[in-house]
TrEMBL record:
Protein name: Transcriptional regulator, AraC family
Record-level Gene Ontology MF annotations: DNA-binding transcription factor activity; sequence-specific DNA binding
Cited InterPro entries: AraC-bd, Homeodomain-like_sf, HTH-like, HTH_AraC, Tscrpt_reg_AraC-type_HTH
Entries under Pfam families matching the protein: AraC_binding, HTH_18
Source species, domain of life: Bacteria
Residues covered by the HTH araC/xylS-type domain: 180-278
Keywords: DNA-binding, Transcription, Transcription regulation
Amino acid sequence: MSKRPSDIPILNLEREIIPGLHIRRIDNKPHGSPPIMTAHRDDYFVFLYQQSGRSILSIDFKEVILDELSICCILPGSVHHFNSADKVSGWMLATSSELIDEVVRRILLDSVSGDVFHVNGTAPFLDEIARAIAGYQSNSGKLISVIVTHLVSAFTGIFAQVIKINEKKTLGNRAAAITFEFGKILRNNFKTRKAPSWYASQLNLSLSYLNECVRVTSGIAVSTYIQQEIVLEGKRQLVHTDLSVKEIAYGLGYSDPAYFNRVFQKIVGERPAAFRKRYRK
């Protein structure tokens, strides 16, 4: 049996003809092999536009299903792989953050990795833009880079627009908006900041009000919300690396691995070692 890495494999786009960019057409036969079956992280964004068929992915331990005329953005750092793909046609665009407009990039980074949205009116535009990018992908040169950058901006901008429209539908009240902002801050700080009061102060709110908003939106307290984010990263490393539980605990900001064990058991219902054993069967 091959040894697992000490960290989750991270793929990059350094060797592409146009650095930071890769696009490919996805066409598979009934019950064909999915694109990438090995769990990994990317240091770039992955945009999936599925025109037909059905595919199932695992993104951060969540099952994600794409069907006809659906899109999905996988954010850098998310552990993912395809489980299956049946009669699938569409496009996969991978691009570094440098090729994405700053406004679009902020919208994407504030979204949830792996959320699926359906597109109808914008579908023909996505297909045409993807074909144009694919046509230029094998070429190089300063002018080509300028053209491709604008095409990538258009393609990713449509994703951001769809995300923003759906975000407005779900953030129609103050509690949801506050929980959304809290989640953004949490994702960038959970390894070093674990006190609910710190997050309340960042939002200029009292802890009791932040708790009220998070409970209304998610059904759990701020402290549990924080622990769930920490445990998610712990799960990634337990399943996809050979780091010890103690090493993982230290990496997540716990000076006492025993405390990490208790937090993990509270959230998952079993200790880290048992979780690792079950997933590696």
